[in-house]
Design goal:
Low-confidence stretches: 1-26
Strand order of the largest sheet: 4-3-5-6-7
Distance between the termini: 27 Å
Strand content: 15-25%
Radius of gyration: 21 Å
Number of helices: 9
Helix content: 25-40%
Number of strands: 7
Structural class: alpha/beta
């Protein structure tokens, strides 16, 4: 990247000295990232993302709830969204749909943030379902009710946002698709796992090694960052190799 240079003349009593000072061009500045969601956003491990990163994470809450009640998120080092989005323009913003909201409610809330951040690319972090209902939610084609972790819901949400903002760019993490791929591989004996719950640490959250590695790198991919194993150096090499194969299926 070529940097811009400016020559400054610094004058003293007896003489002038020419100084060459470099200034970073806009393209050289690190990109900024902001994530809004609940513990399924936290499972993407925002702190390990590259660049200038902040977040607002409130456990178990939907986007409409987070919008209406931003005061005390469960993750204490959150940068509250009213302050963050008012004081700074971000390059990429991730928002996570979750149980409890309808498609219109999600779209309305996200739209408010889109208007506050006119230059940002918005990423829909799909989150994922509880392990017990993952398969049925994934297959659900009905988007008229409350949010389900299904490609149909995410597709409809993205279509609505694109309709409202045809000139804006929207992306997604495809987290639910990755889990579906793993489940398919398990059934075909192509994965070093016995069942999909082996990636979960409880009813809904990802294991701190394998599951979080998968979701962290799904978020990195959506944000245009290269794959990373920082923080996951002790992950079993065979598992890491397999999860990298799954990640390679991302568009």
């Amino acid at each position: 990247m070529v940097k811009a240079f400016r020559v400054l003349a610094v004058c003293f009593v007896a003489s002038c000295v020419l100084l060459q000072v470099s200034f970073l061009s806009a393209a050289d500045k690190p990109q900024s990232y902001y994530l809004i969601g609940n513990s399924l956003t936290w499972d993407t491990v925002p702190s390990l993302l590259d660049g200038d990163v902040q977040w607002h994470v409130d456990c178990g809450k939907s986007l409409p709830y987070i919008f209406a009640h931003p005061e005390k998120p469960c993750v204490k080092n959150s940068t509250l969204w009213p302050k963050a989005l008012k004081e700074k323009q971000y390059d990429l913003i991730s928002v996570q749909a979750h149980y409890g909201a309808t498609l219109k409610e999600d779209a309305d809330v996200i739209s408010k943030w889109v208007e506050m951040q006119p230059r940002a690319t918005f990423i829909i972090h799909t989150g994922w379902a509880r392990s017990a209902t993952r398969a049925s939610e994934y297959a659900n084609q009905d988007v008229s009710g409350k949010m389900q972790h299904s490609p149909a819901y995410i597709k409809a949400l993205l279509a609505e946002l694109q309709k409202r903002y045809p000139k804006r760019k929207f992306k997604q993490t495809y987290a639910i698709n990755l889990l579906e791929q793993v489940d398919s591989d398990i059934k075909k004996n192509k994965a070093p796992l016995k069942q999909i719950t082996d990636l979960y640490r409880d009813a809904i959250h990802m294991k701190t090694d394998s599951g979080r590695y998968l979701m962290h790198n799904a978020m990195r991919h959506a944000m245009g960052q290269s794959r990373s194993d920082k923080g996951y150096e002790k992950l079993d090499p065979k598992m890491k190799q397999y999860l990298n194969q799954v990640l390679a299926t991302l568009k």
